[in-house]
Amino acid sequence: MSSIDASHLRTLSKIVVVGATGRLGKCIRPYWKDLPVLWQSRRVEYGFETVDVLNDPKGMRQLINGADAVLCLAGETYKPNANMALNVDLARAVLDAARDTAAGRVFLASSAAVYGAANGLLTEDGPAIPQNDYGRAKLDMEHMAQAHLHPNTALRISNIAGADAILAGWTPEMALDQLEDGRAPRRSYIGLETLARVLMGLMGQSDLPKRLNVATPGPIGMDSLLDAAGLAYTYRAPATGVIGCVNLCTKRLQNHVKLMPEDSAPETMVAQWRRSQDIQ
């Protein structure tokens, strides 16, 4: 595991991560274990702060009070009968608690899903055309946050290599959509260690925009990731409505954190995923 350079955090004494037991929380916890972080969970978990975000505003204020930065990962994801409105409600509760305690900037986990079928290089100020309830809920969350008085940044996080169906969820009977060019769909990706490093690099920064793409430069074919991992696959006719390419612009992100050329390589992402399996 590569270490996280936390030298810029010397002046920070408290970072709060809300929703630590979810997918994103599990991605970054191993890399942030030596940093000044309080991890929140609604369920009782060893080493976590147990607070109900929606139903315990006093507990939320106590948790967030004095925080230099708050990373809100809490929210609903793709699953049957999910109440997608919770993405807005949870974010609002965190922002309200931060406002009431004069905490530092709140970072809200949004998603590349807000872009949906938008074409070309996707910039934070460009079109957002979500194609599903999850993307629409995240965009609703962003709109709420933009109107909130407490400083916040919505992080439009790309696919995470090793935390989606490709790589970690791959099974031999699965197949990739084959587009007209003969290749699989391409997506902006970010590796697990790179994600942890980028998010930590943002903590404590104050001069940040309201929306920020979180990815590495350039889209990657799903087939390229599987090739780098040595995983066999087949192609299938593309599903109706499949989006061929989701390419997040990272220019704005790179004004605030450093990305290395190798961070965009499928081989790097696969290596980070494999290392992560040894530290879970």
TrEMBL record:
List, alphabetically, the InterPro entries matched.
Epimerase_deHydtase, NAD(P)-bd_dom_sf
A Pfam match: Epimerase
UniProt entry keywords in alphabetical sequence:
Carbohydrate metabolism, NADP
**Ranges where the NAD-dependent epimerase/dehydratase domain occurs:** 15-164
- State if NADP is listed as a keyword: yes
State if NADP is listed as a keyword: yes
Its domain of life reads: Bacteria
Q: What is this protein called?
A: NAD-dependent epimerase/dehydratase domain-containing protein
